[in-house]
Amino acid sequence: MLAVQKVVTKSLPLLHAKDNIVKMPSGCRLTKDQRLRKASDFLLVQTDPKRLYSKNFLLLVKKSSRLSRLGLTVSKKVDRRAVVRNKIKRRLREIFRRERSKFIENFDIIVIARQNAGDCSYLEIKRQIIGALHHGGIL
User: What's the distance, CA 88 to chain centroid?
Assistant: First the structure.
């Protein structure tokens, strides 16, 4: 008989069969401190930011005295379907979560999706965002 070993990784979501709820481990999410949430925070970054451009995204970057934080803007001009807009935001959050340790300093970053961003795959989005951050000297 073969013995089956159970392998558990922290990066995989946990599925609760009882409730059909997928719960991500705590290390996989952006905390409240790592997100721009208030309009005043967005306005603070929008006053005299460094602008970084890619084909489908505009990044507004400003140095921060706190942790690096992310703000996302994906309007209905990108796609009228909420599913597509949310997918873009999930992908952007994941890229930020994985790459923020490589930042040279703490920054507040607002990512504004442009009209054809909904057509991009995860790898295309990652290439564009990292390329813009690298070009701007953030990474």
Answer: 9
Residue 50 lies inside a defined structural domain of this protein: yes
**Alpha carbons 50 and 94: distance in angstroms, whole number:** 22
pLDDT tens by residue, 68-111: 999 999 999 999 999 999 999 999 999 999 998 899 899 999 99
pTM: 0.78
All residues at 6 or more sequence positions from 70 whose CB lies less than 8 Å from its CB, including other chains: 30, 34, 35, 36, 92, 93, 96, 109, 110, 111
pLDDT digits (tens, 9 = 90+) for 22-39: 455 556 788 888 999 999
The answer to whether 59 and 109 are in contact (CB under 8 A) is yes
Determine the Cα–Cα distance for residues 46 and 58; give it in Å rounded to an integer: 12
Give the CATH number of the domain where residue 71 resides.
3.30.230.10
